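We were asked to recover a plausible sequence for a given structure. The inputs and outputs are reproduced exactly as logged, with field labels preserved.

PROBLEM: sequence recovery
POSITIONS: 369
GIVEN STRUCTURE:
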């Protein structure tokens, strides 16, 4: 499941002493030059070797997501909003399916497509763009969505990918997302054990919300891993969190317009070896004070920053008082692919996130739905 470099063994938040890192992986300071001798470690090197190699390979909290591993291949043959051969028709079927596309182009949705449990929506081999509305993961489990584009969602509730309520074991990988009226990815209402990886976010305001609002105290169960994502000039919410436990690592966030990461009520954010490159606005971590629905006093969340690289005058604005309240990923999983943030990692993120022009890998089975 990728390469484990031992960085997770450090329990000293925000500390950049090389004593807590292998010598080749010591985090750079905000003023240190790039080190071209360091190599970039690509996560998920083998998931494209065969069609179903994605199943169960997510790092982090979404690692149990197997999608439609046990089901036959289902082919989307139409770009229509609905009807035979459409994406909507495939996603609503109750049985496990590995959904692939025989067509490239734009699917203009008039309403959310509800993705049922045990589905893989696999965009490899084609270039498929979803617009109008997005995908909704509602009370489902074991879903993988990969290699799709989302652009131009319309309406006050238009999210590209909406995960609510009570959905679990989800992996969103290698998608390009931009310009929806509401969020790009929203994770709320007790949805948990989710990984978002290798995605490219751009041209958007409220990028990613995790945790519905301060009244939804049952969102304390939410756990999300976000890694190797490129937040490319999006304004805020990378992510914005309430109640949840969030592990961020090896993401590249640049030129935000308000703040990079927002820690609302009771949230626990473990930010590890990310690159934060400021534009005009410099605040990386913003603490947002709110009152939980079952508490008397308002409070913000908690953040631990470890090995993060702050560029172009970015200011962490960390409060160190609450670092001891932040969870350790090792309490939940033992392996993840992480490396020190460098110029090489930054360039990797620019070119290797979002939709990729990949062939559809061969399947070892021949069954087709």
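RECOVERED SEQUENCE:
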């Amino acid at each position: 499941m990728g390469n484990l470099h031992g960085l997770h063994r450090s329990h000293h938040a925000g500390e950049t002493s090389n004593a807590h890192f292998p010598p080749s992986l010591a985090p750079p300071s905000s003023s240190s030059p790039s080190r071209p001798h360091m190599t970039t470690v690509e996560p998920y090197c083998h998931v494209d070797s065969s069609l179903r190699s994605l199943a169960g390979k997510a790092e982090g909290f979404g690692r149990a997501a197997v999608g439609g591993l046990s089901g036959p291949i289902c082919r989307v043959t139409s770009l229509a909003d609905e009807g035979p051969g459409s994406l909507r028709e495939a996603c609503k079927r109750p049985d496990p399916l590995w959904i692939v596309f025989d067509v490239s182009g734009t699917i203009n949705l008039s309403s959310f497509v509800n993705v049922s449990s045990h589905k893989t929506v696999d965009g490899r081999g084609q270039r498929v763009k979803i617009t109008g509305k997005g995908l909704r993961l509602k009370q489902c489990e074991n879903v993988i969505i990969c290699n799709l584009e989302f652009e131009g969602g319309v309406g006050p509730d238009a999210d590209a990918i909406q995960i609510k309520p009570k959905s679990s074991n989800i992996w969103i990988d290698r998608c390009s997302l931009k310009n929806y009226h509401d969020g790009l990815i929203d994770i709320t209402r007790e949805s948990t054990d989710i990984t978002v990886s290798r995605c490219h976010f751009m041209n958007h305001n409220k990028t990613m919300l995790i945790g519905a609002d301060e009244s939804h105290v049952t969102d304390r169960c939410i756990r999300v891993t976000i890694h190797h994502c490129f937040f490319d000039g999006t304004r805020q919410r990378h992510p914005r969190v309430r109640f949840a436990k969030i592990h961020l690592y090896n993401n590249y966030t640049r030129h935000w317009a308000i703040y990079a990461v927002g820690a609302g009520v009771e949230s626990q954010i473990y930010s590890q070896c990310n690159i934060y490159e400021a534009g005009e606005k410099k605040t990386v971590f913003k603490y947002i004070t709110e009152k939980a629905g079952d508490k008397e006093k308002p409070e913000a969340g908690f953040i631990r920053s470890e090995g993060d690289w702050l560029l172009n005058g970015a200011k962490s604005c960390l409060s160190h008082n609450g670092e001891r309240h932040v969870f350790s990923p090792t309490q939940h999983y033992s392996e993840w692919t992480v490396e020190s943030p460098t110029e090489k990692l930054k360039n990797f993120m620019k070119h290797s996130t979002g939709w990729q022009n990949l062939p559809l890998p061969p399947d070892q089975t021949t069954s087709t739905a």
